[in-house]
């Protein structure tokens, strides 16, 4: 089939062709970047937190406003929670993964203000934190019971020196190393920063904020019960016992100290759902935008092709009278649409890279993968073929007799 007559026809319908090409370009740029963002956001929301059986890890944060012996109350609470049928393990800590608020500190390998430092979540292990959360040690050991100390914020306490840290943080603090137990680092990078020694390395433990970057797994665990009235009690329920443990947990804490106000009771799975609600909402919004744009583009192609069929009824009739087959008519419209779509795709590829550059600099979106862009190109080509096929088939059904009646 000759391309020249098609190009000549397009020059006479340049406005419509430009509109369709622009639609294709914008749609390609947006949907390819949207698909990349959707993948990235869903991957973030499905990251492994390091916590085993998240739905069975229950946490409650009773807040106390009166003065009381906190060390004794915490121990009494832990004993009461351990006695609940269906409870496998109990701990008390200052924060929980994906809880969206918590403590952090900076850590460095030198007591020098200019030394590189890493910000990390700061957890307190009030006893059996590893077992309760189901965390996996990849090197060293956990804390012994006699290493757990009480830290009273009202008095000066010598901080524990032996700590656990996550593998990601260890690799950031000691790049190029593979063994970390026994290594020394500091809480801060000033001359008076406290010295800490690694006694164990946790494979993975998400921070309360669950950041999107590598800092998501930067955490340090101290062997301590921090004596303040805002601690989190965490229990691991046996499979199938979650509901009864929830109720018994609330009743036990209420019985031990009726003056406390509960700040809610959640499983770690529920914490995950709350933390990543925004990521999932954004993903679904982008899915909706993608479907909408594809629908608009397809409708535009169908509408423009149908208009051109109506405007060219005489031309089609003449071609059929001169021997053009139905297949020739269909190929004509498919080729015409392919030219327009290809022009739009060429511009759309450049627009996609440009849009991705803006998103990378402004929103820290990852670079657009080439396979996503290629998939977008193939999708737009397929969309163009499918959208124009209906009008093309209708054009092919026009009778050659139309030309003799109209000319």
UniProtKB/TrEMBL annotation:
<dbReference type="GO" id="GO:0005886">
    <property type="term" value="C:plasma membrane"/>
</dbReference>
<dbReference type="InterPro" id="IPR050250">
    <property type="entry name" value="Macrolide_Exporter_MacB"/>
</dbReference>
<keyword id="KW-1133">Transmembrane helix</keyword>
<feature type="transmembrane region" description="Helical">
    <location>
        <begin position="332"/>
        <end position="353"/>
    </location>
</feature>
<dbReference type="InterPro" id="IPR003838">
    <property type="entry name" value="ABC3_permease_C"/>
</dbReference>
<keyword id="KW-1003">Cell membrane</keyword>
<feature type="transmembrane region" description="Helical">
    <location>
        <begin position="281"/>
        <end position="311"/>
    </location>
</feature>
<protein>
    <submittedName>
        <fullName>FtsX-like permease family protein</fullName>
    </submittedName>
</protein>
<dbReference type="Pfam" id="PF12704">
    <property type="entry name" value="MacB_PCD"/>
</dbReference>
<dbReference type="InterPro" id="IPR025857">
    <property type="entry name" value="MacB_PCD"/>
</dbReference>
<keyword id="KW-0812">Transmembrane</keyword>
<keyword id="KW-0472">Membrane</keyword>
<dbReference type="GO" id="GO:0022857">
    <property type="term" value="F:transmembrane transporter activity"/>
</dbReference>
<feature type="transmembrane region" description="Helical">
    <location>
        <begin position="373"/>
        <end position="393"/>
    </location>
</feature>
<feature type="domain" description="ABC3 transporter permease C-terminal">
    <location>
        <begin position="288"/>
        <end position="400"/>
    </location>
</feature>
<dbReference type="Pfam" id="PF02687">
    <property type="entry name" value="FtsX"/>
</dbReference>
<comment type="similarity">
    <text>Belongs to the ABC-4 integral membrane protein family.</text>
</comment>
<feature type="domain" description="MacB-like periplasmic core">
    <location>
        <begin position="62"/>
        <end position="251"/>
    </location>
</feature>
């Amino acid at each position: 089939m000759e391309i020249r007559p098609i190009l000549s026809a397009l020059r006479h319908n340049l406005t419509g062709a430009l509109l369709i090409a622009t639609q294709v370009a914008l749609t390609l740029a947006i949907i390819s970047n949207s698909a990349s963002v959707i993948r990235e956001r869903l991957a973030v929301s499905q990251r492994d937190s390091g916590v085993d059986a998240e739905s069975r890890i229950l946490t409650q944060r009773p807040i106390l406003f009166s003065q009381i012996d906190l060390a004794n109350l915490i121990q009494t609470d832990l004993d009461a929670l351990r006695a609940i049928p269906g409870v496998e393990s109990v701990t008390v800590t200052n924060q929980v993964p994906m809880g969206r608020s918590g403590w952090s500190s900076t850590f460095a390998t030198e007591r020098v203000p200019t030394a590189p430092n890493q910000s990390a979540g700061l957890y307190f292990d009030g006893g059996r934190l590893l077992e309760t959360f189901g965390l996996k040690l990849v090197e060293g050991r956990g804390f012994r019971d006699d290493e757990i100390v009480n830290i009273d914020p009202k008095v000066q306490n010598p901080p524990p020196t032996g700590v656990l840290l996550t593998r990601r943080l260890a690799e950031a603090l000691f790049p190029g190393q593979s063994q970390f137990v026994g290594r020394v680092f500091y809480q801060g990078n000033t001359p008076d920063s406290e010295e800490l020694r690694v006694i164990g390395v946790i494979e993975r433990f998400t921070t309360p904020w669950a950041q999107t970057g590598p800092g998501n797994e930067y955490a340090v665990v101290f062997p301590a019960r921090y004596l303040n009235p805002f601690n989190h009690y965490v229990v691991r329920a046996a499979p199938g016992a979650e509901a009864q443990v929830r109720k018994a947990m609330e009743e036990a804490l209420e019985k031990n100290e009726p003056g406390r106000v509960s700040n809610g009771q959640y499983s770690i799975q529920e914490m995950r759902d709350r933390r990543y609600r925004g990521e999932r909402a954004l993903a679904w919004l982008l899915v909706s935008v993608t479907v909408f744009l594809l629908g608009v583009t397809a409708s535009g192609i169908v509408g423009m092709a149908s208009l051109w069929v109506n405007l060219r009824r005489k031309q089609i009739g003449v071609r059929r009278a001169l021997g053009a087959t139905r297949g020739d008519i269909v190929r004509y419209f498919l080729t015409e649409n392919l030219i327009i779509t290809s022009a739009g795709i060429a511009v759309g590829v450049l627009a996609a890279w440009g849009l991705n550059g803006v998103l990378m600099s402004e929103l820290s979106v990852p670079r657009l993968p080439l396979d996503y862009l290629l998939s977008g190109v193939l999708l737009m080509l397929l969309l163009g073929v499918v959208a124009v096929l209906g009008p093309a088939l209708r054009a092919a059904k026009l009778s050659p007799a139309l030309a003799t009646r109209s000319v």
